[in-house]
Design brief:
Distance between the termini: 51 Å
Structural class: alpha+beta
Order of helices and strands: EHHHEEEHEHEE
Radius of gyration: 16 Å
Protein name: GNAT family N-acetyltransferase
Largest sheet: 7 strands, mixed
Number of strands: 7
Oligomer: single chain
CATH class: Alpha Beta
CATH topology: Aminopeptidase
Strand order of the largest sheet: 1-2-3-4-5-7-6
Organism: Nocardioides panacis
Helix content: 25-40%
CATH superfamily: Gcn5-related N-acetyltransferase (GNAT)
GO molecular function, one term: acyltransferase activity, transferring groups other than amino-acyl groups
Pfam families: Acetyltransf_1
Number of domains: 1
Bound molecules: coenzyme A
Domain N-acetyltransferase: 6-156
């Protein structure tokens, strides 16, 4: 399927209401997969943190003015970035998640991060294919009941040296 009607951009605090609505439209399964605990309601206070992660950023996907996905990126260390993804159920499987992840990865690389990590429940079969579809290579590691899918980013290219 195509994502040609979906566009991605940075999310801003002005998007909090629309991102809250996105979470309200998601199924309990999608919310549990995103937050790793049963969730019935995602409060606006949490959405603010997802939209503006501390020292990080977020990318949203929208179609016809409606937000259909969010990727939140927050640093865990100076070179490791945690990425949390959610795509509204009816848009899953159409390339939205991998497109947001690709955007985040490109940005992360430019900002000097060396690795991304996505945390997933052990039975979440969607994360590794999403990483692959984004053109990245993920290595799953089981840690404390969750799977950490670690993605190595290419080293940042240095500028060409000037001729002597
Ligand atoms: C994980 C998620 C963000 C992926 O977004 P998406 O828009 O569905 O992903 P894409 O359409 O880009 O598809 C990426 C790949 O994952 C596969 N995929 C998507 N959903 C899947 C599922 N439920 N089970 C197995 N594979 C799945 C797609 O088939 C595709 O693989 P392919 O290229 O081999 O066909 C989305 O499914 C989601 O929001 N899930 C609930 C929250 C979650 O699990 N977040 C991840 C933890 S942070």
């Amino acid at each position: 399927m195509t994502t040609s009607l979906v566009r991605t951009r940075y999310a801003t605090p002005l998007d909090v209401a629309a991102v809250t609505d996105l979470h309200a439209r998601c199924s309990p399964t999608t919310l549990r997969r995103r937050f790793h605990v049963p969730v019935t309601h995602v409060p606006e206070r949490l959405v603010r943190q997802l939209v503006s992660p501390r020292n990080g950023w977020s990318v949203l996907a929208e179609q016809c003015g409606e937000v259909v996905g969010l990727a939140s990126a927050g640093p865990l260390t100076a070179d490791l970035l945690e990425v949390g993804l959610i795509v509204e159920d009816r848009h899953q499987g159409s390339g939205v998640g991998s497109r947001m992840l690709r955007d985040v990865a490109r940005d992360a690389h430019e900002r000097g991060y060396r690795r991304l990590v996505c945390l997933a429940e052990p039975d979440n079969d969607a994360v590794l294919p999403t990483v692959r579809r984004a053109g990245l290579e993920g290595v799953p590691e089981h840690v404390d009941g969750v799977v950490e899918v670690v993605v190595a980013l290419p080293a940042r290219r240095r500028g060409l040296r000037r001729p002597a």
